[in-house]
Design brief:
Blueprint lengths: L5 H11 L1 E3 L6 E3 L18 H14 L1 H14 L1 H14 L1 H14 L1 H13 L4 H6 L19 E5 L6 E6 H9 L4 H13 L1
Antiparallel strand pairs: 1-2, 3-4
The structure holds zinc ion (ZN) (2 copies).
Length: 193
C-alpha cells in the first residue's frame, strides 16, 4: 500500500473485508452491500443480489401496493415526476404513441371523458347525474343511446358547458344557431301556423 492515496487505501480495505449475507449466506466484499444507516456497520444485512431479487419479487407479487406507493411519491414530487415523464415521452416517441393509441382503443369512454376534461374542464359526469341521465330538452334516456349520440352541449364561444342533450335535440338547437330569438320564432310559427 506504499505511496497509495488515502482513497486507494480505503478502497483496498473495503474490498478485502467481507461480510456474510444473511439471506444467501455467501461471504462477499463490502461494496457488494447497499448502505443502510439502520444497521450497526452501516451496510444492509442482505447482499445487493439478494436485495434486488427481493425487490423484484415484491414488485411482482404486490403490484397494487407498489403502484400506490409510486403514486404517493409522484404526488409529493409533482414537478420532478412531470419532467421525468416529459423526458421519457420525448425519448420514446414511437413507443409512447403506440401505447397511447392502444389505450384509446381499449378505453373509448375514458378517452371521451379525458377529451372533455381537456376541452371543457369537466367530463360532465356529475352534471349528467344531476339531470338523472336524461336529455335536458326531450328527457329521453341518454344511456340508451350510443356514446356518439350523447352530447355534452356547450356554448361555442365561451366553451361553457350548458347541459347534456341527445343527438336530435343538440342538432335541433344547432340548426337554429343556438339562438333563443330564432327558437322563439320557430315556436310561435309552430303554434300559429
Ligand atoms: Zn445474498
Ligand atoms: Zn333530446
Amino acid at each position: 500500500m506504499k505511496g497509495c492515496s488515502r482513497f486507494c487505501e480505503q478502497f483496498f480495505f473495503m474490498n478485502t473485508l467481507t461480510k456474510s449475507c444473511t439471506k444467501c449466506g455467501a461471504d462477499k466484499p463490502l461494496p457488494d452491500y447497499y448502505a443502510d444507516p439502520k444497521c450497526r456497520d452501516g451496510l444492509a444485512h442482505w447482499c445487493k443480489v439478494c436485495a434486488l431479487a427481493h425487490a423484484r419479487d415484491y414488485r411482482v407479487s404486490n403490484p397494487e401496493r407498489v403502484a400506490a406507493k409510486n403514486k404517493r411519491w409522484r404526488e409529493a414530487n409533482r414537478d420532478h415526476a412531470a419532467s421525468t415523464k416529459r423526458a421519457y415521452r420525448e425519448a420514446n416517441r414511437e413507443k409512447v404513441a403506440a401505447a397511447d393509441s392502444a389505450w384509446r382503443a381499449a378505453n373509448p369512454e375514458r378517452q371521451i371523458d379525458y377529451q372533455r376534461r381537456y376541452t371543457y374542464g369537466t367530463d360532465g359526469r356529475d352534471l349528467l347525474a344531476s339531470q338523472g341521465g336524461l336529455c335536458a330538452i326531450c328527457a329521453c334516456d341518454l344511456a340508451s343511446l350510443p356514446p356518439n349520440q350523447q352530447h355534452l352541449d356547450h356554448c361555442h364561444e365561451t366553451k361553457r358547458v350548458r347541459g347534456w342533450l341527445c343527438h336530435g335535440c343538440n342538432t335541433g338547437i344547432g340548426k337554429l344557431k343556438d339562438d333563443p330569438a330564432l327558437l322563439r320564432a320557430a315556436l310561435a310559427y309552430l303554434e300559429t301556423a
